[in-house]
Amino acid sequence: MRQRQAAMDRRRAREFETFVAGAAGRLLHAATLLTAEPAPTAPRAQQLLTAALSRTYARWDELRGEDPYDVTRQDLALRYAHGAWRTRRHTEGVLGPLRPQERVVLVLRLYEGVAEEQTAALVGLPPERVRMICARAVTRVREAARIREAAQVRETAQVREAARVRDSAPTRKAAE
Description:
The chain is an all-alpha fold. The chain is built from 7 helices and no strands. α2 (43-58) crosses α3 (68-84) and α5 crosses α6 (127-168). It is elongated.
């Protein structure tokens, strides 16, 4: 009996490891988008993913026909949504200016390609509200990108002007 259980545990572990090897990168990217942390080091995103994967592993035998990626993604989004209101930190990146609810809807709808109705069911909102939140989030991201781009253009112009002034100033040797 013990050998049979050990064999089942090894099979379960191999199946889960295979799933994680194939899905962890995309799930981590989704978690990084949700937390809006810088990509190379995203501790909150890694914590979210670890917790979601732990829950998926605990339920592995119960999944029976369910897509483990969908289950893990759902758990990831819910964990973020339930914990985000407690941590109102300034975040960076393209999705940094978004509120947590906007970020969840945008990541699920546009990055993950989850249908509007499924997203609505997942976050507990009517589909019309999800549509409005998604549209508002896209507008906010575009506006933030325009502002960031304008700031970069101003900064570049200032650097060029400073270099031009520096290059056109007489040097000490020329003055002597």
